[in-house]
Fold Lipoprotein.
Amino acid sequence: MLTWRPVALLAALAVTLPLWPSPLLGVLCSVAAVLALTTVDLVAAAPLSAVRLTRSGPTQLRLGESAAVHLTVANRATRPLRAEVRDAWVPSAGAVGTVRRMTVPAGGAYTMASWLTPTRRGDRPAARVTVRSYGPLRFSYRQTTARRADRITPQWTVRVLPPFRSRRYLPEKLARLRVLDGAVVVRGRGQGTEFDALREYVPGDDVRSIDWRGTARRGGVVVRTWRPERDRRVLCVLDTGRTSAARIGDEPRLDTAMDACLLLAALASRGGDRVDLLAVDTAVRAAVRGAGRAALLPRFADALAPVQPSLVETDFELVTGEILRAERKRSLVVLFTALERGALSEGLLPVLPALTARHTVVLAALHDPDVAAMAADRADPYAAAAAERTLAERGRVRDALSRNQVIVVDAPADRYPSAVADAYLELKAAGRL
């Protein structure tokens, strides 16, 4: 294929036409010279069959972070490779620096970096690497066909994990957890439900925690210490049906639920409990069971990364069956879903008795604060009436769930992960896991 340079040379030679005895002869000679140069330049270009491509770099990345994936172009030919390489990715990978011009000596290699800043969760694959090999004059070039480009492109996929923005709440929640464990001396009644040990009285301890028999035996004042339940089971269930696709603020409801799920998993694992994961609508989309404390968050994030909302009605009979099958002992089941009358009244409420009879159930719902603002704004009476109706329906669903012994957490997006973690800590302190 030709570049712009032969055309520019022909235009320059056209200036010399008045010097020729015949203008036609001048045109023919000029075209012949340019064609000869172009042919020689094309023959001198390095063959594409001698190009080898390899990749290196990260295979996982959190949403909002950036990283470089390196593409190494090796020249196995006996002549230099003057090339333009385009490393194409899917648009949501947010790739920049994907086009590079390079000169690779014979037997040498050149490494280019494509910087990725993904805009969505999930798997972001490399699409195609296109290589153009130019001659020394850059009059012409050889380019890989689409079929050959697909064949030589090294396969590479970067899995974009949930961002886990709620980890900023983790230090404060862990501090509360340490108070429950008795690692920090606080004023007030002892926390926890299981007797742990006796220790010496320190100023500030509640006198009601003094163990008088132990005091008589030791000859010094001792107090009882308590610890919360340990080795309990926590099951995080994410509803990935149509209600999870609704956008609250800047992201889908499902992404905010994932953030809260990761915070709860991190906190519960630090509290000595076993945490499992289930993402389901009309089928199980992700499941993690039996993960150790060290591998818990990486496995949760990896399993949740490709999960997307499904535009189907969630099958709560399937959800209940999977929960009862996964957790045979009494557990804390945290269901991340929406307080929507149609989905819960017809799907969840009929199967709740079978679930609450075996487990402690928390329904974690996310609401849009703009609805309450619309209800308070009387400038548009129709919008206010619609908002009032939505709030009333949410209240009725919440009351129905409470009558069925379900603990309801209903919070806006900015406080949602923290509210779910607080509900877990309150249940743990009360010994209700």
